[in-house]
Amino acid sequence: MYVVLIYDIEVDDNGAKASRNIFKICKKYLTHVQKSVFEGDITPALLQQLKLELNKHIRENRDSVIIFKSREERWMQKEFWGKEDDKTSNFF
Amino acid sequence: MYVVLIYDIEVDDNGAKASRNIFKICKKYLTHVQKSVFEGDITPALLQQLKLELNKHIRENRDSVIIFKSREERWMQKEFWGKEDDKTSNFF
């Protein structure tokens, strides 16, 4: 399945550290697209594994993660405007 | 069609103002989900109108907007972890 993962980490004393850890974990499984946005193909099992790893760093009452899931990438077209720091984008 | 819009505005002198304007414009067309993340059903014509309005505030070499488009919402399941400030989410 194809997913887009977006995280929002509260900027407080431990926020920067949590954010760095979450970024590194996401990078192991998905492609970095923009600041706190990742995308990519992933199996349900690996997505579960990613969640377990992230759960160690996500602070339930402060931080949030959203995952948009689609069965296939072609059902999720992507469009970019402005400054682009992602090599995998596909303009439509 | 169903879209997820994510913007990333560079934090500089005019960044705060640009961010406020962009937030207000997005709120007219889509549902706010998380910090700089919006989602919702929108027609191609209205998406074009949204782009034109945003283009007045997006600074090409500093800011970026990503839009993920899917023909229908049901092809884009959403999952939330942690702090949730969106009433339209649907857990799976």
UniProtKB/TrEMBL annotation, chains A, B:
General function of this protein: CRISPR (clustered regularly interspaced short palindromic repeat), is an adaptive immune system that provides protection against mobile genetic elements (viruses, transposable elements and conjugative plasmids). CRISPR clusters contain sequences complementary to antecedent mobile elements and target invading nucleic acids. CRISPR clusters are transcribed and processed into CRISPR RNA (crRNA). Functions as a ssRNA-specific endoribonuclease. Involved in the integration of spacer DNA into the CRISPR cassette.
GO biological process, one term: maintenance of CRISPR repeat elements
Top-level taxon of the source organism: Bacteria
NCBIfam families found in the cross-reference section: cas2
Protein's gene: cas2
Protein's name according to its UniProt entry: CRISPR-associated endoribonuclease Cas2
Similarity comment: family membership: Belongs to the CRISPR-associated endoribonuclease Cas2 protein family.
EC number, as in UniProt: 3.1.-.-
PANTHER family xref list: CRISPR-ASSOCIATED ENDORIBONUCLEASE CAS2 (PTHR34405:SF1)
Subunit structure: Homodimer, forms a heterotetramer with a Cas1 homodimer.
List of residues binding Mg(2+): 8
A Pfam family that the UniProt record links to this protein: CRISPR_Cas2
Entry keywords, A to Z: Antiviral defense, Endonuclease, Hydrolase, Magnesium, Metal-binding, Nuclease
Co-factor requirement: Mg(2+)
GO terms of molecular function: hydrolase activity; metal ion binding; RNA endonuclease activity
